[in-house]
Every structure is written in structure tokens, then in C-alpha cells.
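Hi F.,

I've been meaning to write this up properly since the lab meeting, where we talked about keeping a consistent format for the predictions we share between groups. The idea is simple: the sequence comes first, exactly as it goes in, then the C-alpha cells exactly as they come out, then a line or two of notes. No screenshots and no reformatting. I'm using this chain as the first example so we have something concrete to point to.
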Amino acid sequence: MPRRGNSLSECLFAFVELAIGSYFGYVALSTSNHWYVDSREISQFVLRPSRIIFFMPPCMACLGLVVLFHDRIKSGLFKRVLKREIPDSWQSPLLEGFFRKAFVVWTVVLSALSVSLIPVHTRFTGEHLVAQALWPMPERRHSYSDVKSVALAYYYSAPSAHSRGGWSKERALYLRFRDGAIWTTMNGLAEAHPAEREAIADFVSRLSGVPVEYPELGDTRCCSTRPPR
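Output, unedited:
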């Protein structure tokens, strides 16, 4: 008599499906981003989004794929690989009706979001800063002559269910332009370690002629969109 499976083993199998799919989705997205950036003009500095931004959309899209195709994968595993019948405890009901349509929409939307993340990056050339947002949005270019201020400042994070909040221990880079736009490294879309932030600040300062500011803790004028009084 064949050994019977159990619901826990099926959950573990689904988790393995999700883990493998998420990993390959992250690798594909991250690699595509590097290829895209390498195809652009030569730059002194290139900043990419944090890893979690490249990981979560493919992971969520893969979750939808697992929900939609788990039964087919399970059937192929037992009948083609293991050459045995599916255990009774693995005979879960098929996803039908509204829930199946909802997961189809879920998967399509998150897959599209994953693809739209491919070009996201910021690069610093010898003439300007170029920020590429989600595809198909165009690049935003800012000449160094338009830089109004360069600041390495602390920032405040509001408390949440996952964080106590408070002032940061490290300084983030803020570039304010004369048209009112602000570019920063603190939003996760341009990840840079402290030494790299210092190097970029000095680079922009040298090309723009604007000195680097080091505001004291609590001074948020460099990152505020409100005009000074």
C-alpha cells in the first residue's frame, strides 16, 4: 500500500514552489536591471533599488502562480516523476469561480509591476543626474547647474507596526533643484552605503559649485517641500 501524504507535507511542497519561483524571479529581475543600466551612457555612479524592491513583486506574482498551477505541478510530480497516485490528503479542492479570477488578476498585475521595475535606477554622468522611474515613464534629467543644495542629513521615520520609528543613525543624501524637485537616497529606490553617499555628494558639489551641507539632527529644511519662511 503506498504511503499516504499529509496536509503539512503539501504545504511544505507549496512553500518550496514559492521559494524557487521567487528566487528565480528576483534573479531575472535583478539581472535584467543590470543589463538595462549597462546599455545606457557611461556614468560615474549608478544606484539601484534595494533588494527587497526587486524581490517582493516577483514573490507575490509567484504566489499567484502557485495558487493557480499547484494542482498541475502536484499531478506532474506524482504521476510522471514518482509514478504513483496522489495521496488522499493531497486531494485539495480546485480553485474556481471568483477566487480563480481574482488570482489571475493578482498574478497579471504583479507580473506587470515586476517588468516595469526593470529600468529603475539613478545614474550620475559628467553632465547631469538621470533618474529612471517605472517603465514606461520617461527618464528625468537634472543638470548639475540646476542644483540648489547638496545635503547629507538625518531623516525621521514614523513609528509603525514593524518599527519603533525615530531619527536615522546614518545621513541620507538630499539634492534639491531650483525647480523644487528633491532627489534622495532614503526612499529605497537608490540604495547607497554611507561612503558612496559621501562620494556622490562631493562629486555633485564639485560639478555644481554648491557646498555640501551637514544639517544637525532635527533640521529637515533640506528635505522639506515647503518654501522657507
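Notes:
The chain has a mean pLDDT of 86.
The two ends are 82 Å apart (CA to CA).

If this format works for you, I'll send the rest the same way.

G.
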